[in-house]
Every structure is written in C-alpha cells, then in structure tokens.
Amino acid sequence: MESVKNALQVMFDYQNADGSLPESGPPLLQQKSDTYHMWTLIGTYNYMLYTGDADFVLKNWPKYLKAIDYIYAKVDSSGLLNQTGTRDWGRWNTGSNNTAANVLLFHTLQTSALLATWLNDTTSLASTWRTRATSLQTALLTHSFDPSYGAFRDNATSTSLYPQDANSLALLFSLIPPNSSTALSISTALTKNWTPLGAQPPELPGNISPFISGFEIQAHFKARRADRGLELIRRSWGWYAKHLNGTYSSTVIEGYRVDGTFGYRAERGYENDASYPWVEFWAYERDDGVGGGD
C-alpha cells in the first residue's frame, strides 16, 4: 500500500489554489478533470479502509476539505453536479450534468462521511455530507433515470444513450439498493451492450474498455447476478488472456476494438496506448466477491 499512499500524496502536494486536484502527477500534471479529482478523494477513503492509516488522512485533511468544497460548489439549482472539468477516462462526451460524474460525487460524499466519522470529526461534516449525498441521489433518480428502460440516461436530457459507466457505478456504489428490482433492471440493461468479446460502452462505441467493464463486473455481483459477472469475465478477460497477439496470460490492456483488433480509440489517435494496471479491477471482485465475503 506504500505506492498507493505515495500516489495520493503527490495529488495532494500538487493541489491547485482553487482546491482542484490534478488529473496526474508530474511531469504531466494534467488538469481539469472533475472525475479524476473525485477518484483521488475516493482513493483516500480506500487507503484508510485497508490500512487504518489515520495519520496520513489527518495530515492531508485540510486539503481534502478544500477539495470537497471545490467539487460540491459545482452542484447547481437542479441538484446535480455541473461537470466543467471534462477530462475523463476516454468516453466521447462529457460535461454538463453527466450522470457518471454525478454518481461519482454521490460516492465521494458517502465515503467522505465515513472518513469524517473514523477521524472522530466533531463539526457535523459527516451528517452534512450524508444529507448532500441523499439529495444528489434524489436528483439523479428524478432527472436522469428512465423507468421505461430501467436504467440511467447519460445525462439529464431525453437522450437514448444508457451508458455502461454510470449504470455500473450506480449499482457498485449502492445508489440503487442492491436487492431491489431496479438493480436487477439495470443489470439486465447492461447486458444489452454485450458482444462476444465483452461489453461495448454506448458512450464509447466500437471499443471495449476493461476499465469500465471491471466496474460492471462488480455491479452484477452487487445486484446478486454473479452469473453475469462471471460471464463478462470469460468474454473479455478470457478472450484477451488467450490471444496470441496480446501479452499472453496478462489482463493488463487499456482497451481494444469490438472486432478484436488493437486500435482502441483510434479515431482520436490513441491506438498506441495499451498498458494500464487499472484494468485489473476484476481481481478485486475475485478476491472480495467471488472468493471473499462481500
């Protein structure tokens, strides 16, 4: 966990004056990503969860609070986050009241409340953040959920795009109760994107993202559909692990095309970036869900 601690510390060390956190550390120091900003905060919670290292969190707590204030200030009169830092994981369209970014904020608020509780904060932060999370949950269900389709839209418009990322995260982060009929309908809706080689994100057509598919796998387990989670592992990771032109028995690839070629996001000159450890997310589900006690 030392590497996780060091990576998080770099993000806090390079926090901007307005409270925003960089998307990446030096030498790139890319900026303007609301979602990466929130992932750093969620990562801080995860680090505390697995290590109990309260000293690390306390050391960075003033910066953490500034980061929370920065992102929550983007919630507008609709009750939804207005995503202005639009750099993201690779989906084509971002910004405005993007549903995935709003689900991330919901989880950021929930995990922040837990951190405040663990740190014995006495300023009512935990209560405030839980209340804000509940309000955001209500706004998402009101403005972004399509009951006729049984899943979340890409944003709070009448769009017919039902993204893999937002719907997977809504289940994974319990925005929707795991044992509910709505959770099952979202799980079913996600399978409509499946191809023989994995799940094709409607928000990134023509491609398969093991990064986002890792969240979907965990989402199916959360919705009590382990059969679907295992099937997606077989289709995506199983196919790649056996691919003679891949890295053979490795699961570390950022993405590939639905036809099995290696031109992930080639439309934007991105076809040479194929190695990322983040696509090992299903291993977490293997340990904590399939083989663990989740």
UniProtKB/TrEMBL annotation:
<dbReference type="InterPro" id="IPR008928">
    <property type="entry name" value="6-hairpin_glycosidase_sf"/>
</dbReference>
<dbReference type="GO" id="GO:0005975">
    <property type="term" value="P:carbohydrate metabolic process"/>
</dbReference>
<protein>
    <recommendedName>
        <fullName>Glycoside hydrolase family 78 protein</fullName>
    </recommendedName>
</protein>
<dbReference type="InterPro" id="IPR012341">
    <property type="entry name" value="6hp_glycosidase-like_sf"/>
</dbReference>
<dbReference type="GO" id="GO:0003824">
    <property type="term" value="F:catalytic activity"/>
</dbReference>
